[in-house]
Design a protein that fits this description.
- The protein has 86 residues and is mainly alpha-helical.
- It is 55% helix and 0% strand.
- The protein has 3 helices and no strands.
């Protein structure tokens, strides 16, 4: 797994967009008191369930890998020429 150039910024963007998707999907909503870790896990699992991202292998399912998957997911959603695209 190679780190993306703007992975931290992409993860922030993924959580912002993902929160909207999470709510519109009817899965609930993120509260200000929810930890970033809980948000990452919940969003990752919802995107896997909906078939929007490929699941990690069971032995690779940890927070750093979930963050990377979310960053890859949002990077593919960004338009060409976006400053966060590599």
């Amino acid at each position: 797994m190679s780190k993306l150039k703007h992975e931290a910024e992409l993860l922030r963007q993924a959580l912002a967009v993902g929160a909207t998707y999470f709510e519109k999907r009817g899965a609930g909503r993120f509260e200000a008191t929810d930890s970033a870790s809980d948000k990452i896990k919940a969003l990752y699992r919802l995107l896997v369930q909906d078939g929007l991202i490929q699941p990690l292998a069971k032995d690779q399912e940890n927070e750093p890998n979930m963050k990377h998957k979310l960053a890859l997911w949002i990077e593919r959603q960004l338009p060409a020429g976006h400053p966060l695209k590599n």
